[in-house]
Design goal:
- The chain is an all-alpha fold.
- Helices cover 74% and strands 0% of the residues.
- The protein is built from 34 helices and no strands.
- Helix 6 runs antiparallel to helix 7.
Amino acid sequence: MEHVPPPAEELARLDRELAELDARRAQLLTRRAWLLAALRPPAPTAAPGWNPSAWGAPPSGRPGAPAQPWGYVPKQPAAPRSAQNVLLTLGGLLLAVAAVAFTLVSWGSMGIGGRSAVLAAVTLGALIAPAVLLRRGLAATAEALAALALVLTLLDVYAVHAVAAPDTDGLGFTAVASAVLAVLWTAYGLALGKLRLPLPAAVVLAQWPLLFWAWAAGAPALVVGWALLATAVLDGVIALWGKGPGVRVTACVGGSAMGFSALMVGLALSTTASGPLGAAAPGALLLAAAAAALAGAWRAPKGFARTGGVVAGLAAVAAVGGVPAAALSDGWRVLAYLLCGLALTGVVRAGLPRDAARGVLAASGAVVAGALVWALPSLAAVLLGPVTLLSDVWAGSPEGFRSALGSTLPWSELAAAPVVLALVAGLLGSAYRWWPSVVRIAAPLGAREETPKPDAASSAAGTPGAAWTAPPGAGAPWYTVAGAGARGRPSGAALRGAAGAGALALGWGALLLAGVVLDVPYAVAVAGETALVGGLLALAVRGAGSGRGASAVPVTALVGAVSGAVSVGLLSLASEGAAYAVFGALTVLFAGAAVRVGAEVPRAVFAVASVVWGTVLTGFAGRSLDLDPHEAAPLVLLVPALTVLLGARLRRNPVALPVELTGALGALVAVGLAVSDAPFLALVLALCGVLAAGTAVRPERRPVAGYLAAALFVLAAWVRLAASEVSFPEAYTLPVTVPALVVGVLRRRGDPEASSWTAYGPGLAATLLPSLAVAWTDTDWLRPLLLGVAALVITLLGARHRLQALLVLGGVVLALDGLHELAPYVAQVAGALPRWLPPALAGLLLLVVGATYEQRLRDARRLKDALGRMR
């Protein structure tokens, strides 16, 4: 019978086959394009220097045929333009230096007539010469002389001020002179349209008249700001309607500098105003700057339009928000700016161009982000402040929330922080709740630009620049060519999830900060944070259980619940009763969430957290009973014992492994607590061995837990023997070794495929390893001799019966025992040898090993294979 797969499996198979076909089609099209390019004949190029009249017609009778040698005169290489530019630049520079030297040094030795004649003649000649050179086609030389003329006009201005008007104010004269020069060079540049220098130079000169005029008049800072803004507006007009890219770029740079300076002046005056009336005048300057930036953004290209929108939005926030902020205290001023920033979102209804509106929205986001950056450090202090309680656990309940944090932040100046977080959280929550309306309102701003379609020729030839279109009825294009596709943007669902996650996180932070700002009693703070953890757990369980476990909101709730649990747990350490109540509640809450949640990952996180809180509770119990750390270690093992039972109940559930591993970490903590006392350490190791043996009962855990249990039992026996100062450990280990070996023999008879490590490893290690440890500190010869004989017998038995455990354990013990016996003699020989001999021998050994490296590698592989074939 023919097997018909389920629809889902068949659909997946079809998708894979279609993807393979698409990939193959792309390869074939690329190869086709290359072949077309290879077969296309090269474009004919005219031979340089062809002169038919010099040699006559070629033999073929086709004048000008490039394939014939007749009449071909090689063209002499011309000097590159870069050399010409260097020469012209150096010449103009030298002339400018000469003019400056003449004006500064030789000016006083001439009469007034001579001075005027020289200046007029040289300047007039430098201005007329470019026009004559342009008519002769010498544009580069004309540019050099125009630059010289610019320098001469500046020197003329200096000379006029030094001779004709020496008593005139320098700043005022500079303002008038720069204005006159800007007009003259504008007219000169328009008259000689082919020159590229005069008009940008006129733009540069136009930057200074208003600024120097305000400076000369001793105007206040506000007037200087208006002068800067007016200059920036003029630059913006030139940038939009100026002639040539040089003029526009120069105007853009100048306008950016002047506009930024005007904004800084207005912002400084607004933030330092003594009251709302004092902030109104700089606010008018900022509003005018915002209007100018928005007007420029209305007509500017895409990138500049967005930048103009950003500047307009920020300037408007500073202007409008600065007036009420001047009447508020320092802790509440940020709220005024935040409200103005949120009001900018109304730009979606203002009918602005799309790019300008996007820039204004970006400014709104920047204001909101700035307010959050201002408030978040205080939230971090609330979450991390209780860490200081670790140094003095259960010292007593503090009076209020602030005293429990131990923070030195000026909380009275941060009173607006919870309001800021709550306001932004409410806005994001509203967007999350009414997301379809938000999408509908913002739809005009999210429209994508149309992508130009490729021409028919390129599509037919299969060139790399062609874009493939989808077949009729397809929802997406088959192919996206690099550089031609639309930029990837987050989906609407992702944006909505981010809004909901932000609302949840900021709302939680607002509630925490409100408790600190109000300085609620300590008990209320602990109870409130615990309740918040419970609420976050409920949201995480509900979101994961609804099939949206990977969305942002439940993930944020999960992270917030764990973070809040850690914070409130640290906060509860100030009081014994609060510590028991909080960690008990956290254990129950996280265990209940693990039971109720449907997704595997949140369930594992909740279960692990519940185990951690329970382990902390057992530690509290030992402290309450006034037990020393090593005496409290057995109590800590209660939770690992429960995790072993829970793992046996869950069996192969994905949550079982994380829970058991967390319990194992708790057992490791108990071992660490008992390290200071050897008898208790032996007890704790033995109890851990019992727990590992109980875990090894399950087949899926036996490969790891079985070896761990054996190692823990052996280690517990060693520690106990060392604590009892036993000098003959064999009397205690042999009674364990013999029954263990008997059990191993029976196991091998029943199951010949069983590993020798499982059958004989624990029994042999129980005696060999403690005896080896004692033999290394024994000065007598009897124990090392007996141990060496026993290890030799075990090694031979392992080699005879091909038992890996016997061979490895016996061989290692025998080698170490022999090394112990040879160590004194090796030390004596090493002391008698010259000091240069050991390095020389080591180098020789390395050379030999390196030369026979491949042979040694093959020997090691054969040894590994031989050991691997043993049982």
